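Hi support team,

I submitted a single chain yesterday and got back a structure, but I'm not sure I'm reading the token output correctly. Could someone confirm the output below corresponds to the sequence I sent? I've pasted both exactly as they appear in my results page.

Thanks,
R.
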Amino acid sequence: MTVEFNIDDRNSMLIAIIAGNYDFEKVGKVINMALERCLEKDLHRALIDMAQIKQADSLAVEKLIFSREMFTRWGSKVKMCLVYDHKLEPEFQDKMKEGPDGWCMITANKNQSVFWLLAH
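Hi R., thanks for writing in. Yes, this is the structure output for that exact sequence:
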């Protein structure tokens, strides 16, 4: 699979889409490299191959919190990151509730979670 990054013309928004349950420490490192590549080369889109990332047993909030510091370091360049299980339908987004530190999170069940990450 690939993770596709789209940065708008103002270079103020980044959306990362991750399908499935992955080890977020490894995903975080891959996303961080992709961000560096996008920002250093002023790219508006980057495709990253996620095939080498080992699948985690579950999608845990603790693993997602690890990546908050990584996104924070980019400041205003990264406005949000959407991380979701591909099985989760879009209509669940209206049930989203704000979580700690400006992160919004909803959970359909233990196997389907949506995290709307607002970088500070």
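A quick pointer for reading it: The radius of gyration is 14 Å. Let us know if anything else looks off.

Best,
Support desk
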